[in-house]
Structure prediction request, 84 residues.
Amino acid sequence: MAKQYELKDRTPESMRCIASCDRIYELCIMGTCPSVREHEGKYIVIGKSLSQAEVNELGLAQKVSEGEAVIEVPRRLIDRMKEK
Prediction:
């Protein structure tokens, strides 16, 4: 049987919007949010995907593996995650 997943919105209240915008979700196997073991949890981040030129300019090209993307979000999105 395939696992069912739950996305719990972890975007700070002050950063939420109605339309598309930067967001952070916690990915959990159905019924386990928050994760029982902190090290097993994952976050899904929605933000602006940087172009290869932007990644190169930042000096991150060697740090990005195949299948990975460099995502940009406002700093306050992560800084304010603890406000919940």
The two ends are 34 Å apart (CA to CA). The chain has two helices and five strands.
